[in-house]
């Protein structure tokens, strides 16, 4: 199977996850927990949440999507090669969304444990992709059928089409934050309002889980169709 075909198959479901996360994301809940900026800025943004969705939330989610796809490159390199994963570990970690979001206060043994878990997750993904890269078919699900039985195909979906696992397992270790300039979002008189500092880690977990509950069953249904069951 071509590398491009594997990437396209993965990107299809990643794009669906981003879309579903955006649909589930509650920006009002995030704003109510914001730091700085004062109540007026929050109130103005709450009254005008659509521009905030369009200009801040959705671009940030698309940025995360691009980050995950950039990390996918060295994982695919590993899947297609005979090298040990350690040859790719530094690059994989440098592109890891969660490693980038690790709180500075997480140090010592816990930091190392999380590092090893993040790398193990990507190594296992590469190991799962290797038979697909080696398959003859250029269609994603045809290659899955060639490489796996149905149980292993479903395990691939359940294990690797779910992205919230590190965040759920180490809820307090990561911080997803952004700054919102009301003037850039709303224009006009809002330019006089101060910038808000927003952490949306809890909402990220909630909305991602909602998205996964929709997309993973779809992917498993696609697997069932591919196996003719």
Radius of gyration: 20 Å
Beta-strand segment tally:
2
Beta percentage is under 5%
Summed up, the helix count is 12
pLDDT below 50 for ≥5 consecutive residues: which ranges? Answer: none
Q: On the 0-100 scale, what is the average pLDDT?
A: 88
Question: What does this 3D model show about the protein?
Answer:
- This protein has 229 residues and is mainly alpha-helical.
- It has one domain (3-226).
- Helices cover 72% and strands 3% of the residues.
- The protein has twelve helices and two strands.
- The chain has helices at 3-24, 27-32, 38-47, 49-80, 86-94, 97-100, 108-134, 140-147, 150-160, 165-169, 182-186, 201-226, and strands spanning 177-180, 196-199.
- Strands 1-2 form a two-stranded antiparallel sheet.
- Helix 1 (3-24) packs across helix 12 (201-226) and helix 4 (49-80) crosses helix 7 (108-134).
Secondary structure layout plus pairing:
Elements: H1 3-24, H2 27-32, H3 38-47, H4 49-80, H5 86-94, H6 97-100, H7 108-134, H8 140-147, H9 150-160, H10 165-169, E1 177-180, H11 182-186, E2 196-199, H12 201-226
Antiparallel strand pairs: 1-2
Helix pairs in contact: 1-4, 1-12, 4-5, 4-7, 7-8, 9-12
Outline:
This protein has 229 residues and is mostly helical. It has 12 helices and 2 strands, in the order ααααααααααβαβα. Strands 1-2 form a two-stranded antiparallel ribbon.
List keywords for this structure.
229 residues, 3% strand, 2 strands, mainly alpha, 72% helix
């Amino acid at each position: 199977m071509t590398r491009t075909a594997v990437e396209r198959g993965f990107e299809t479901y990643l794009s669906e996850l981003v879309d579903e996360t955006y649909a589930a994301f509650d920006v009002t809940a995030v704003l109510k927990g914001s730091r700085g900026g004062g109540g007026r800025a929050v109130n103005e943004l709450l009254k005008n949440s659509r521009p905030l969705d369009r200009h801040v939330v959705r671009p940030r989610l698309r940025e995360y999507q691009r980050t995950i796809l950039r990390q996918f490159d060295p994982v695919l390199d590993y899947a297609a090669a005979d090298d040990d994963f350690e040859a790719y570990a530094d690059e994989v970690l440098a592109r890891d969304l969660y490693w980038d979001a690790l709180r500075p206060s997480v140090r010592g043994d816990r930091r190392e444990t999380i590092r090893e878990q993040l790398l193990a997750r990507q190594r296992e993904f590469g190991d799962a992709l290797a038979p697909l890269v080696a398959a003859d078919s250029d269609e994603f699900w045809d290659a899955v059928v060639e490489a796996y039985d149905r149980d292993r195909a479903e395990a691939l979906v359940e294990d690797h089409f779910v992205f919230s696992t590190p965040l759920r397992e180490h809820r307090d270790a990561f911080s997803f934050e952004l700054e919102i300039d009301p003037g850039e979002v709303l224009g006009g008189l809002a330019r006089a309002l101060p910038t808000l500092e927003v952490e949306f880690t809890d909402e990220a977990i909630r909305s991602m889980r909602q998205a996964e509950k929709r997309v993973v069953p779809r992917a498993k249904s696609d697997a069932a169709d591919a196996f003719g069951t």
